[in-house]
Every structure is written in structure tokens, then in C-alpha cells.
Amino acid sequence: MSTPRYKKTVRERDIVCQGCGTVGTKNNQLTVHHIKPKCRYPELEKDPDNCTLLCQRCHTALHKKQGYPTPIHKPYERLDRYGRRKEKPKDRKRRLRREAKNRKKKRR
Ligand SMILES: [Zn+2]
Ligand SMILES: [Zn+2]
Questions:
Q1: d(Cα 35, Cα 47) in Å, to the nearest integer?
Q2: Is the pTM of this model over 0.85?
Q3: Residue ranges of the domains in the chain?
Q4: Please, which residues bridge with residue 55 across strands?
């Protein structure tokens, strides 16, 4: 799977998260966010001017605030045929373990 050109353009233009300035980490990767949601403005989907670079954390926070219907998919989430989240029990266990670990780390 290759990255669409408009996404490359946005990444090269913005370089860091436009919310917090991070260059992105393995657990908090940079993603291309559509300022006007592509589900409502499909014609703007590939317009770099409608895109901004955000890290996953800022991206999730923004969508929570704005309440766009576009779901944010974490890498461990798979969607079934109906667009619902699907997670294998094995993955769920692994995720919970990882989250518990992260929580411990943060507290220190
Ligand atoms: Zn950020
Ligand atoms: Zn977005």
C-alpha cells in the first residue's frame, strides 16, 4: 500500500504535529487530518489545503471535541463489514496489558 500523494505533500509541508509540535513516536504517530471531514466533503479529500498534520493524541482529542462521525482507527482495531470495531480476544488482552503498562509508566 503506498501513501497517497496528497498525504505526502501534507507531511512534507507540516513535518511536525500542528497541535503539539511532536515529530511523532512509535506509539503516537503522525496522521493526516482533514479539516473539513471527507465524509461530508469528499471533493476536498485529496486537497492538501484541507489537511493538517496531527499526532494521534491530538487527532483523537480534536475529533472528540468536534464530534465528527469519522471514527479514528487505532492500529489494533479492525472494522468488520458493517464498519463496526472488531477486535480479536487475543489482541484485546494484549492491548489491555499494554495500556496497564503505560499507565504505570506515566505515574512515575
Ligand atoms: Zn500532537
Ligand atoms: Zn481527522
A1: 10
A2: no
A3: 1-72, 74-108
A4: 30
Distance 58 CA to ligand 1 centre (A): 4
Query: Which three cell numbers mark 51?
Result: 489537511
Contact in structure between 72 and 55 (CB atoms under 8 Å): no
Q: Which ligand is nearest to the CA of 28?
A: 1
* Residue 105: burial class (beta carbons within 10 Å; 0-12, 13-18, 19+): exposed
pLDDT at 75: 44
**Rounded CA separation 32/52 (Å):** 6
Q: Calculate how far, in angstroms, residue 32's C-alpha sits from the geometric centre of ligand 1.
A: 11
Q: From CA 108, how far away is CA 98, in angstroms rounded?
A: 16
75-91-81 Cα angle (round to 5): 65
If you average pLDDT over each of 46-60, 64-78, 82-96, which comes out highest? Answer: 46-60
* 56 CA distance to ligand 1 middle (Å): 7
- Whether the CB-CB separation of 15 and 9 falls below 8 Å is answered with no
